[in-house]
Each structure stands twice: as C-alpha cells, then as structure tokens.
Amino acid sequence: MKKIIIGSILTAGLFLAGSAQAKYIDKHTEANLVKICEAIQSDSKIKLHIAIRDSGINPKAVSKGLVCNGYDPVTFAIVSKAENTAKFMARMSKVNYEELLAKL
Q1: CB 81 within 8 A of CB 48
Q2: For the whole model, what pTM was predicted?
C-alpha cells in the first residue's frame, strides 16, 4: 500500500509541478502530499484543511492533481468510506458528489 501511495504522490507531483519531465520531488513535498492523502482517509475535514494549509499547495491544485492510491481525492475518500472529506473535496473540485457516488 505504501508503494501505491508513493507512486500516487509522484504522479501528483508531476501535475502540481506543471512539468511532465519532473523526475524529483523533494522529501518535504512528498511528506506533505502523503499527509493530505492520510487526512482524506481520516474523514476529518479539520485534519484535511490543516494538511492542505500546511502543504503550501493551492487547494484547487490538490483537488485537481493529487492522486492517492491511484484515485482522485474524491474517489479515494469514497473508497475509504470517508464521506465528510469526500463531500469537502467534491466541493473544492466542483464535482457532483452524488453522481460520482452513483457511478461507483
């Protein structure tokens, strides 16, 4: 599972850095992205807000570019049975939570 998270973080880093040729994400950024994924899974909007704020990454960039375990943040939260954070991330990324839930 840890390999999947790290692989997802590297993928997200490519999107967040804005360069498809990026080969390196510093450990600090990687740790921040892992904390965001963990906060999404925790189903705590407060932990998620703090993790995003502490990362220094734009919340919209997180909602659009982050990949946790191969899923976008909203789908990852739904799969993790984290309804509160799923709805929060859906609002941030302007995704219809109910439609996405119906597709899964």
Answers
A1: no
A2: 0.70
Whole-angstrom Cα distance, residue 5 to residue 27? 14
Q: State how far the Cα of 95 lies from the Cα of 28, in Å rounded to an integer.
A: 29
More reliable by pLDDT, 73 or 102: 73
Residue with token string 């990026």: 22
Alpha-carbon distance values, 85 to 1, 17, 82 (Å): 20, 24, 6
Please provide the distance, in angstroms rounded to a whole number, between the alpha carbons at the two ends of the chain: 21
How are the residues of the chain apportioned to helix, strand and coil, as percentages rounded to the nearest 5?
70, 0, 25
What type of residue sits at position 84?
A: N
